[in-house]
Each structure stands twice: as C-alpha cells, then as structure tokens.
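Subject: Re: docking follow-up (zinc ion)

Dear J.,

Thanks for your patience while I sorted out the input files. As discussed at Tuesday's group meeting, I've set up the holo structure prediction with zinc ion included as the bound ligand rather than trying to dock it afterwards. The sequence and the ligand SMILES I used are pasted below, so you can double-check that they match what you have on your end before we go further.
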Amino acid sequence: MKRFMAWVISTVALCAMVAAQGPKRVVIHAGKLIDGKSDAPIADAWVVVEGNKIVSVTPGGSPPAGADVIELGKATVLPGFIDTHTHILLQGDVTAAEYDEQLLKQSIPYRAILAARNAHLALSHGFTAMRDLETEGAMYADVDVKTAINRGEVPGPRMFVATRAMAPTGMYPLLGYSWELEMPHGVQVVDGVESARLAVRQQAAHGADWIKYYSDHGYFYGPDGVLHSHVNFTAEEARAIVAEAHRIGKPVAAHAIGSDGIAAALDAGVDTIEHGDGLTDALIDRLVQEKVYWVPTVTVSVYVAQGRAGNWPKMIETQRAAFAKALRKGVKIAFGTDAGGFPWTEVNQAREFHYYVEYGMTPIEAIRTATTTAAELLGWGDRIGSIEAGKFADIVAVAGDPLADIRELEHVAFVMKDGKVYRNDLK
Ligand SMILES: [Zn+2]
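The structure tokens for the complex came back this morning:
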C-alpha cells in the first residue's frame, strides 16, 4: 500500500511537471520576415512557435528566455507556400501516349508510391499545403496519401483532395482505342443529373474535400479572336454537380480553358476556375462580381506548349493578356501550377512565382497568391497562409531576398510544417 501511494505521488508530480512545461517552444530568428499580410518585410523578427502553432511575432529585441533558437538571421522567412492545383498521382503528360501509359502500365499502388515521393519533394520545395485536383485514373489514392501524411507515416504537405473528378462519356482520356476494348478512365464518367448527384456523393463518401469537373475540351480560336471550347456537360448536369456538392458542404473546382467552358462553369456556380486561358473582359468582370477565384497554372501551359504544338503556344500569349487584365480588375488570383502535368522530378513548382512577376505582379503580390489568397481559397484563411499568432507553424525560408529576385523562391532552404522542421540547410 505504501509503495502504491509513493507511485501515485510520483506520477502526480510528473504530470504536474509536464503540464507546467507545456508543449515545446522554439523561436525562429528571421533576418527579414515576409508575414503574408504586410506590404513591407519586417526586419529582425522573432517568431515564437509552441507545439504546432505560432504564438507570437515580435520585431527586434532579444529572444524569450529558455527557448531553443533556430537562427535564420541572414535569411528571408515566409509563410509555407500553397499550390492550389496539383496532381500528385501524375508524372507529366505532354503527349497522350505519356498519359495513357501511366493508366495502362502502372498499378495504382505503384502510382501511390510515386505520389508519396512527389509529396516529399513538394514539401522540401517549401509547399506546406496543396489542393490536389484529381487522381487521373488512380481512384481514391489521393485520400490514402493524405491519410499517410496526416498520420506522420510519410512527409508531405497538408493535402486537400478531389479524388476522381468528372466528365461525360467520350470527353476525357483514355480515348481513341478500339471499341472492342473497355479502357480505363482518367475521371469518373458521369452522364445525366442523377448520375452527377450520385458521383458527388460517392466521392464525398470516400474522402473528397473538393469536387472537380471538366467544363470543356477542344480549344480553338474563333473569327472573333477569342479562345473558344466545346462545353462538356449540359447546363442541368453542371448545375446538379455544383448544387449537390454545395448542399453537402464541398466547394467545386472547374477545369475551364476556353471562354465557353469558363462561362458555363460560372453559370453553374463553381468556386474556382482552373487554367482560364480564354478569359474575356466580360468573363473577368464576372469573376470579380461573383467572387470566383482564378488559378492560372502558367507553369504547365508553358511546359506543354512546345510538345503539343497546335493552338497551345498561342494560348500562352492569350493567357498572359488575360492575366494582365485580371490583375488590373482585381480578380482573386490563386497560385496553382498543375504539377504532375509536368514531371515533379524535373520542375520545381515554385517556378510559377516568376511567371506572375513577369506577367505584371509585384513580388509581394505574387507571394500572396501562394499564401493568404490560396489559404482563403481553401477556406483555411484562419489557420494557414500567414505568419501570425494563432496560425499553424508552416514556415519556410530562403537565403536571399525574393523581393529583389523572385526566383529565390525556387531555392527554399528551410521548411517547418505543423511546428516540425523538415529541412534546414541554413545551419
Ligand atoms: Zn490539372
């Protein structure tokens, strides 16, 4: 009995000690801090992180006593980057053959292993969150990758996943094979209003955070000089997808490249327009009025243009002109690359930043597309996207000054996600 009481007393004392200590505290010393909100960087700042949260940001002075210091005094510290358009289960698809080969010759388990590799790569490049916009025939494997990351089994960004996406019969690869063969599909094939509602429910049941559908295909320039397209779904079908998704609390992303596809997606009430090359003045006005986000994915447009020829090279210029107008008119432009549409191992998705600057944004505006604006698009504006008290500790750093040279962001040297350091080359 005496021994039992001694055990109780020592256990209580130990618990009290742990409670008094609280979660682990670390302090990041930032030579320059771009917090994601302010217009100008803050010099010589102290960012205090407790567990997985930021608890304070203080300019100047000395570090709080008793905390471990991560010395980044010569570096620029920023919020972790957010890419709002990726495909972790895809390894590049400039040609139809490249795409088809992945669906025909690679098992979904093999593709999921590559996806885990891609997630690690993205995190090491400073991407602490990603919206992955469909698995390209790999069913619900994005949910598995997300689960493995969340359980700490593999390193990767916070994942927001769309599972299978949707297109009607005959509007999405694999196409062009003998009618005698039953080929795999790069999406869930959906025809009719009831089928659309069912697909939304099935995808949500298996873990989709977002619903994605393909609004158009077959892009061509009309005599009016506008980039047009063939619309995939009837208005009733598209409305059914969006209404059902919204009814159960899931936002909707639409692939829409030509002006017709963009108009149809806006009519259906989607939350984000993906690619959007064919945005006209009138459609840009609608984006502003209807508060719909635009995710331009310039990196993939430039990457695939040469290999695809046809209208693709001209579409880069069309998109560039739309970008300048959208920027002037105040469209909510969110950072998205379509990584996976180019090989993860070849191109660092942070390349997207320099296109935005080349297309007219200031470096700080370009940084906001991947931080505050992207976080708002995800509905996580209160949790990630800036370095301030109360947010998750998703923090990156580069050695140089990205406001002087935006391409510095392609050389991230420090990565913290959820309070844990995954990379530090600045020691
Ligand atoms: Zn895509």
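A couple of observations from a first look. Residues 85, 87, 133, 338, 341 surround zinc ion (CB under 6 Å). Residues 11-19 have pLDDT under 50 and may be disordered.

Let me know if you'd like me to rerun anything.

Best regards,
T.
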